[in-house]
Amino acid sequence: MTQHIGQRIEAYYQDLPSHERRVADFILAHFDDFAIYSAADLARLTGVSKATVTRLFKRLGFAHFQEVREHARELRNLGVPLVTEPGHTAQAFHRHFEREQANVKAMLDALDPDTLGAIAQAVSTADNVVVMGFRNSYPVALHLRQQLLQVRGQVHVLPQPGQTLAEELASLGDRDVVVVVGFRRRVTSFDRLMAHLHTLPCSVLLIADGTATSARQHADWSVICPLDSISAFDSYAAAMSLVNILASAVLHEHLKSGRQRMARLSHHFEQLDELS
């Protein structure tokens, strides 16, 4: 991606005339929600003319204000937290609900039942299940581990705080399954990690959004969860729904032993008085 508007402002900042610098300062101070303002809003809030706002955007490489809005949408689609419209209204809540529904539906429409069955079979019979995730993917990975632990043992989450991965991956065998959760704005080493996992004897499931195109070639299975949102932040409703579906499918692969394990867990919870 070319430089975003904040980076362009920083590159030109020292050479900006004072009035344009005033607009630039406002954009930098409101970078997460600048896209909700019109050119007239920017002029009014910074006390300059609309022509000054136009000159600034042209200096930054934008032909017109609509191109600035398109630039903001592009950043949002790449996962940059930007507010592109006002929220906190009944209409916004309704549109949020519709967007969440659409994300879950898109994930389910693309999830082949036979593929889910093969994944569930592999996870249920694996000697070890390793769940991996970085940044925003880590909470989804943690939740998946927690749900799978209700059904079976030997489910591990990586990376552990302060630890590297090599020691953990070196012992993986052909009866192990690695689940990699990799949503956008991934760490720079992500594709290298996926390529390395592909060389190991374990099976690999990738749970990601649609931008993980290069990583998908290194996975045995991949499930795409849309993250689209009307807010500044990505939505993980589809990902959490998939965790529920996958854990349930694993349980039904070995329903009797799964129920026995859940009963044992309930006994330990009671003995330790850990849950209210």
UniProtKB/TrEMBL annotation:
Gene3D superfamilies: Glucose-6-phosphate isomerase like protein, domain 1 (3.40.50.10490), Winged helix-like DNA-binding domain superfamily/Winged helix DNA-binding domain (1.10.10.10). It comes from the Bacteria. GO terms for biological process: carbohydrate derivative metabolic process. InterPro entries: Homeodomain-like_sf, HTH_RpiR, RpiR-like, SIS_dom, SIS_dom_sf, WH-like_DNA-bd_sf. GO terms for molecular function: carbohydrate derivative binding; DNA binding; DNA-binding transcription factor activity. PANTHER family: GLUCOKINASE (PTHR30514), RPIR-FAMILY TRANSCRIPTIONAL REGULATOR (PTHR30514:SF18). This is MurR/RpiR family transcriptional regulator.
